[in-house]
Every structure is written in C-alpha cells, then in structure tokens.
Amino acid sequence: MRRWAVRLGSLVVVVALWQWLTTADVRAGLRFDRLPSPVEVATEFSRQLAGGLYYLDLAQSMIRILTGFALASVAGIALGVLVARSRWAADVLLPPVEVVRPIPAIALVPIAILVFPTDEQGIVFITFAAAFFPIMVSTRHAVRALPTLWEDAVRTMGGGRAHVLWHVVLPGTLPGVFGGLSVGMGVAWICVISAEMISGEFGVGYRTWHAYTVVDYPAVLVGMASIGVLGWLTSASIELLGRRLTRWLPRAEERAEQRAEQRAEQRAGERAGEKAEERTGVRAGDRETHERATFEQAAFEQAAGGREAGQGVEEAAR
C-alpha cells in the first residue's frame, strides 16, 4: 500500500509541476508558456471520451499491437529455442537474422507498403518485426543459460528430448522469456504508433499526428497520454502473467528476507566463535599456568631430592 501511495504521489508532483510551469509562463531556456496545461488536456480528453472516434482509434491500435505481438511471441520463442538447442539451425538461421536485426523496424515501412496489399497488414508486420527480435534474443540466451545438470538428471531417469523440452527447457526459460516479452511489447508500441503516423487511417498514432498537423496541441497530448497508459497496461499484464507462471521463483521480498536471515545466522556464528575462542583462551591460560606450577613443583622436589642424596653421600664418606 505504501509503494502505491509513493507512486501516486510522484505522478501528482509531476502534474502539479506541469501546471505551475504552464500557468506561470516559465521561460528558463525552454518555453513552457506554449505548452497546454493539464486542465486544457483534461478538457480535451473529456471531449474525446464523449465521442465514438476515440474508442475506435483505441480498438484499432490494440488489434494491431496484439496481433503483431502474438505472432512475434510464437515465432520468437520457437526460433530462440531452436537456435539455442540446435547447432545446425543456428548456423543456417542466425546469419540472416543477425543481419536484419540491427535495422529499425520503422525503417521497414517502405518495404511493408510495397509487399503487403493493405496498410493494415503492413502495420501489423511492422509491429511483428519490432517485437520479434527482443523476444527471440532473450529466449535464446535464457535457453543457453540453463544448467546442464537439469537436462542430465532428466536423461538419466530415462527422459527423451521431448520430455526435456517440455519439462526442463520451457519452464526453466520462463523468467528470461517474459523479460523479452516485456521489452518486445514496449518496442512494438513505439513502432506501431510510428507506422500509424506514416501510413495509417485510424489508430492513436494516426489521430495524434493528425492533431499535430492542425495545431491542436491538447489533442496531441491526449494521444501521447493514451499511448503511455496503453503501453503501461499491456506491459503490466505481461509482468503479472509472468509472475503467475513463475511462482516457484523467489521474489524480491523473499530474497531480501533470505539475505537478512543469512546475515543474522552469520553474525550469530561469528559471535559464537568469538565466545568459543575466549573460552579456549581462558582454558589454555589455565592449562599453561597449571603445567608451569607442576613443572616448578617437580623441579623443586628433584632439587630437594638431590640435596638429600648429597648429604647421604657425605655422611657415608665420613
């Protein structure tokens, strides 16, 4: 509850600062007097909510992003596992993939316009290309990072390749895969909005660009805020799904508690060791004192016996 209060408070501070910069006409290198205030943006947002075009744009963008992301997830995970598990597949498939991967997905818009018969298919392809590479790379690294001991144990018990894949590889790579899915979703939103601005007819990106061309800056900020909220909701959904599917992993709070317990046990062990050393030192000192006293007593008795023997010899000689 406290964390949510802190997060909400940070948003309130940002909005309050935004309101002050715009109403006070601050010109400290940047001209905030031209920026719409939060009140103006909220008014424009309420106006768009009253109409049906806003919801149509949201639905169109969501359909594009979910379609492209779903295709990228299936293809990226499959190819990532394949190239990580098969050397032959890595030699054949990775070179062309690595050549295409550095190219920004938005740079593929001209190719999409030429190849696909409709703009809708081209935008979905751009979304697919944007999300595919982060998912594929993260899956590949997650598979390679799996301990070989897990696979060896399953094979020792008679498990085949399919059993290893379904019961070792896929469950073990889920944390890394969901990390790639989260990154891929963020990149997909960036590229789908850019593609809508270039070649779309509907969508949040297209509507935001159209508002900019007619100098309607409150509508531009409404579009930007809508993109941010949609991106956050989809990423949070992926993160929530990842937590549900990886409940066997220790969470940050659990790891912190474990580290605290380990530190407490370590300190207790150190204290016990110090006390043991102190006791050992005292006992060693007592033992040394006793041995010294015993040695002195023996030496004294030996010296006394020597004197008595000498006296006996003298008396015998007389």
Automatic annotation (TrEMBL):
Chain intervals with Basic and acidic residues compositional bias: 259-294
Coiled-coil features, chain-numbered ranges: none
Membrane topology summary: Multi-pass membrane protein
CDD domains: TM_PBP2 (cd06261)
Record field: compositional bias (Low complexity): 295-318
Compartment annotation: Cell membrane
Region (Disordered): 259-318
Principal localisation: membrane
Entry-linked Pfam families: BPD_transp_1
Family: Belongs to the binding-protein-dependent transport system permease family.
Record's protein name: ABC transporter permease
Lineage: Bacteria, Bacillati, Actinomycetota, Actinomycetes, Streptosporangiales
